[in-house]
Design brief:
Elements: H1 2-18, E1 31-41, E2 63-67, E3 72-80, E4 84-95, E5 98-103, E6 114-117, E7 125-136, H2 141-144, H3 153-163, E8 165-177
Antiparallel strand pairs: 1-2, 1-8, 2-3, 3-4, 4-5, 5-6, 6-7, 7-8
């Protein structure tokens, strides 16, 4: 009877150890993501006209990024004004709430590489933010330029060129998981 009890206990122990979950955990960022929404915030004084705006730079299905479990990423962005289409790849690293992308191409401009994870990544959503530089017209531009219907485009373009400023804002990126 003692041998049977010992054998059963040994069998249960072997079964318990064999059922131990040895599979490595996959980082929740791994997978393909598409930008659903981009919003500007924290505009400096005098540029509140851009505050809260969703930018036309990226539209749904026009910005996608895929993170691989080996630390690589691929990113595709279509039709960025002044930059065109961007295909970017490199290595990613997520430490605490900071996501860093290290591109294989140092000459790509117009995109962010350092992000803050705003919320825990879910199986459906990832929200990132980045301090980014944009071109913007000051709030008082409309009072400086009174445009009527006969204004020549070249004159308007030169006025806009004279008043456009580079400003730093926070861009919030809301991505949906594709797979």
């Amino acid at each position: 009877m003692k041998n049977i009890l010992s054998t059963l206990l040994l069998g249960a122990l072997v079964l318990f150890v064999a059922c131990d979950d040895d599979e490595p955990k996959v980082d929740p960022i791994v997978g393909e993501w598409e930008l659903d929404r981009f919003e500007i915030s924290n505009a400096p004084t005098g540029f509140m006209n851009v505050e809260g705006r969703s930018s036309d730079w990226f539209g749904e299905d026009r910005y996608s990024i895929e993170f691989f479990s080996d630390g690589a990423y691929n990113r595709e962005i279509d039709n960025i004004p002044g930059f065109g289409d961007i295909d970017d790849e490199g290595e990613w690293e997520l430490i605490d709430n900071e996501l860093e992308l290290d591109s294989d191409d140092d000459e790509i401009g117009g995109v962010d590489y350092s992000f803050t994870l705003e919320e825990e990544i879910t199986d459906r959503e990832m929200i990132l933010s980045a301090l980014t530089t944009i071109l913007a017209l000051p709030d008082d531009f409309a009072t400086v330029v009174m445009v009527d219907t006969v204004t020549i485009q070249a004159v308007l373009d030169s006025l806009v060129g004279a008043y456009v400023n580079e400003i730093q804002v926070t861009g919030t990126y809301e991505f949906d998981r594709v797979n």
